[in-house]
Write a structure and sequence with these properties.
The chain is built from 9 helices and 22 strands. The chain is an alpha+beta fold. The chain is elongated and about 115 Å long.
């Protein structure tokens, strides 16, 4: 079909063939590999399209075959140019338009990102911009496979990615991991301790490497050493002979208290719309922007809603042309007072959002307490959450440690 569409650009003719041997004429054309399209069979005739140069070669066949052939239509680019040969400005404008379309087809004018959950679209678009992939980038400079590999290397959250180039549109689709890959110990050398990041009560401790300094049920403060980054080597009598520096590793969970407090004034500024609106249109071509709000009287306070649409041709052929419609709605503020039920409901909404952060991180809540006090001026909500969470981070151990000659010995703590 693509070859037939290409032949239509040339000078072609539409023929009407009648007579007893019209099918034989078609068979001979097929045998000589003449391109034929738009074949329509009638009761007494056949209608076909073929190139003009091939039609001239069939004059000899027409003499040998008992059939009548009549040209009913001519078409193609040459017929079009001949028709408008006296309209130089039109042809010049059409030529310039085609050249511009051919030129802009070599660049990226739209980027779509799909599949983001923990990551945001803005993060990926900024990353693409840093790697010189943005609007106006030449398509010849892009490597879709290279972008896919660099994305997986740059973001641990990405498990699978697909980068496709269609027309002037670049589509980046990702699949995020269900769980981030966890590394128990970073790539460190020397002696590192695991210390507490919060005050709390140890609920469980499991040591993989190093020496545990606390037990379940112990109260610890922020910065306290939980697992020391060394272990002692002892002889048969239980005497410490030497110490070995290691990077501490283990899982330590503790019950941690989180306090929350919010105060909401009883008075607030309510936004009242006047009903006066103003619409403006704008066109942006590349970096050039044209507005239609030259005679608009500015409002003191407005809320603006803008809708932008990009010009698109078939087959994902986006152009750097944008049409924008802006709606401005005038408003003013009026001082109002909350009812007690309203302000307490608002405080509870903030409390629920605070609790939702623990749910999103997968941290179990053991106990939660909340209290609301409302007077004439302010509504105050105070709350406390006891949650069980990991409280470890790495810290360099600067204490002198004797390094053993053999580091292959395995010691049970």
């Amino acid at each position: 079909m693509s070859g037939i569409g290409f032949h239509k650009l040339y000078h072609y003719v539409k023929l009407e063939i009648s007579g007893k041997h019209r099918e034989r004429f078609l068979n001979l054309c097929r045998k000589r590999k003449y391109p034929i399209w738009d074949v329509r069979m009638g009761q007494e005739d056949v209608s076909i399209c073929m190139r003009t140069c091939d039609y001239r070669d069939t004059f000899e066949l027409q003499k040998r075959i008992d059939c009548q052939i009549r040209v009913t239509k001519e078409g193609g680019i040459f017929v079009f140019l001949k028709k408008y040969r006296k309209r130089e400005c039109f042809l010049l404008g059409l030529t310039v338009c085609l050249l511009l379309l051919w030129f802009v087809n070599g660049f990226i004018w739209k980027i779509d990102v799909a599949g983001c959950e923990r990551l945001s679209d803005v993060q990926l678009l900024n990353w693409l911009e840093e790697h010189k992939v943005g609007l106006g980038t030449k398509k010849s400079m892009l490597s879709c496979q290279g972008i896919e590999e660099e994305l997986r290397e740059s973001f641990d959250e990405i498990a699978w990615t697909s980068v496709k180039l269609e027309g002037t549109k670049l589509t980046v689709e990702i699949k995020e991991r269900l769980e981030l890959p966890q590394t128990n110990a970073p790539d460190l050398t020397g002696s590192y301790d695991l210390v507490a990041t919060e005050n709390g009560v140890i609920s469980s401790i499991y040591t993989r490497c190093g020496t545990a300094q606390v037990l379940a049920g112990d109260s610890v403060s922020k910065g306290a050493v939980l697992i020391r980054g060394s272990f002692d080597l002892v002889d048969d009598s239980g005497t410490v002979t030497s110490s070995c520096a290691v990077v501490a590793d283990g899982d330590v969970k503790a019950k941690v208290l989180h306090d929350y407090e919010i105060s909401i004034p009883m008075t607030y500024q309510d936004k009242i719309y006047t009903g006066r609106t103003y619409r403006t249109m704008s066109v942006q071509i590349g970096s050039l922007q044209l507005h239609t709000d030259f005679f608009h009287k500015k409002y003191k306070a407005t809320e603006t809603i803008c809708a932008t649409r990009q010009l698109k041709l078939p087959n994902s052929f986006y152009l750097p042309v944008y049409f924008s419609e802006t709606l401005q709605m005038e408003y003013y503020y009026k001082k109002k007072t909350y009812a007690k039920s309203q302000v307490e409901a608002l405080a509870n909404e903030n409390w629920d959002r605070f609790l939702q952060k623990f749910v999103q991180k997968g941290i179990p809540i053991i106990v939660k307490n909340v209290k609301i006090v409302t007077d004439e001026k302010v509504c105050t909500l105070t709350g406390c959450v006891e949650a069980e969470e990991s409280i470890t981070k790495y810290k360099k151990n600067h204490d002198p440690v004797i390094q053993t000659e053999s580091t292959d010995r395995e010691v049970e703590n």
